[in-house]
Each structure stands twice: as structure tokens, then as C-alpha cells.
Amino acid sequence: MHSLDLMPGPQENVWLATLRANPDHARNYARRWSNLVAEGRDIYGEARLIDAMAERGSNILDAGCGTGRIGGWLAERGHRVVGVDLDETLIEVARRDWPQADWQVQNLAELSLLDESGNPAEFDLVVSAGNVLTFLSVDERLPTLARLREHLATDGRIVVGFGAGRGYDFDEFEADADRAGLVLEQRYSTWTLRPPAADFLVAVLAARPH
Asked: Where do the Methyltransferase domain residues begin and end (predicted)?
């Protein structure tokens, strides 16, 4: 299956470029999610899928966590959650709204989370929703996937979702995942696990055995 994505990949991190053009972008983004909740909208569909895939009390990494809507919801349900985002404003919102989780400011391409022994922290599940991967520059893509691979526990899985037409062709993503030592186990078109389609990708990945 080929995507509808025909745009070239960005040479600069899209989020940082947008912030430079509009310093209020992060605050406006956070306010939009708050407004959706106030309207009674369901914004936790991705989190429900991850919860269904996880044993209770799992270690979960929310990669590109934004305001914490996914990781925070999972933390409330008993999981040990670490959320990472490069935007300090969004992390401040996550820390305020979801104090049950650990929120950190980091660029995913340089992700480094250590356990008590100084080794890479391992997670049973890694989730990256909200088109996070399409905000990465071309040069950040492979390092990000490799870093996520390094933080997977034995039998851990990564679940990512992003839309077509955003500069990251699905076939390119699969090739990058393969180069990063990941195996595509399942592919869907929605977070409710509809069959594959050309407009959106939800991919479940695992580490390739050494």
C-alpha cells in the first residue's frame, strides 16, 4: 500500500519553525485541547487503545506528549508513564494537569532516559500520536526511531500514528523503521484498528532480535 503523501520532508523541525513564526502557537495549541474537553469531546481514543494493549502497571513512554492528554489518561489508570516533548510550554501544562506522570523536555532525536543503574530506561509500550513523527525534520527521523528502539523492553512495542500528505511517506517510514532495527507487526488506518488505508497510518512495531 502506498500513501497519498507526495510532499518532500521538512529540512527543519516543523514545530520549532512554527514557534519561531508564531511564539503563541504552543499556548494556542494547549487552549484548543482544553476547549475540546470543555465541549465534552472525546480526546482519549489513542490512550484507550494503548491501555488495552498494556498489562496493568506497565511502563509507558508518551513520545511527543504535548499537553499530556494520552500519557496523563494512562497514568490515571495505574500505568507508570514518562512523557517527553521538546516544547517547554506544553510540558508545563502536562505537569499541571497530570501530576501522576513524569514529564520531561527533550528532543526525541536525542532522547535519553536512564534507569537507576544508568542504563537506558525500558518501556513496555511507546506511543507517538498526534502526527508527531511528521513534525520531525528529515534528519531527525531515523535517530528518533533508533532512540525509541533503544528504550524498548523485551517484547515491548511502539505504536505510532500519522496522516498522509504531511511530508512523511508511509513507505519511507517503514524503510526508516527497518533501518532503526524495528519490525512492522501490524498496520491499521485508525486508532480503532480499521484496515489499512492510504490516508492515515497506525503502525505497531517491535524490536528486531539482535
From this structure: 60-156
- Residue 147: CATH number of its domain: 3.40.50.150
Contact predicate 200/189, CB 8 Å: yes
Give the DSSP H or E segment for 183: strand 182-188
Residues contacting 40, CB < 8 A, separation 6+:
none
Q: Is residue 85 part of a domain?
A: yes
Distances in Å between the Cα of 86 and the Cα atoms of 35, 92, 181, 182, 193 are 23, 11, 24, 24, 29
Range of the structural domain that residue 24 is part of: 14-207
Give the model confidence (pLDDT) of 173-200 as tens digits: 999 999 999 999 999 999 999 999 999 9
User: Is there a contact between 191 and 49 (Cβ–Cβ < 8 Å)?
Assistant: yes
Residue 134 CB neighbours (<10 A): 20
Number of separate domains in the chain? 1
Domain-embedded: residue 82: yes
What's this model's pTM, rounded to 2 decimal places?
0.90
Rounded to whole angstroms, how far apart are CA atoms 50 and 45?
9
**200 burial via Cβ count (<10 Å: 0-12, 13-18, 19+):** buried
Q: Which of 209, 203, 130, 127 is nearest to 172 (CA)?
A: 203
